[in-house]
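Field reference: "sequence" (input) and "structure" (output). Example, Salicylate 5-hydroxylase small subunit:
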Amino acid sequence: MTAITTALESARPRVTGGTRPQVDFDDFYALVALNARYAAVLDAGDWDAWPEFFVEDCVYQVLPRENHERGRPLAVLAFESKGMLKDRVYGIKETLFFDPYYQRHLIGTPLIHACDGELIEAETNYAVLRTKCEQMSDVYNTGRYLDRIRKTPAGLRFESRICVFDSEMIPNSLIYPI
């Protein structure tokens, strides 16, 4: 089983109406702040800072809701390490050719499914707006993040971030991280 398949299995939603995990305010606030910084970095186009949100052995995946719900690991983007994220950054900055655009991330309040002291499992809704030069902004991508966040000496870092987008299609191509 690959790291991506393992992350996909562990990212199944566990929404229940009953008990909720015990999370202290500091951990909750740190998680909200992590998502806010993540959005700010991507919205500013600070691509070199993006991989630093992840641990070395991480999973970052962007896949359609249909594939996620059916347990199919086929993803639009799938990376299995911080090194692969850095390769994507190099591609964005140096090798890919595309019409530049701006992103604006709107990230909801995280729903924490589990917290064991060192690891937080959470789900957070997101919407990404895209603006191209001299065009109206449009809704580029919506969905939810399914996250496993590790507490490290440097603060919270993503062990896995699975971006499950609602539509079966994405416009043109996916260049920047979601």
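The radius of gyration is 16 Å.
Helices lie at 3-10, 25-44, 65-69, 82-95.
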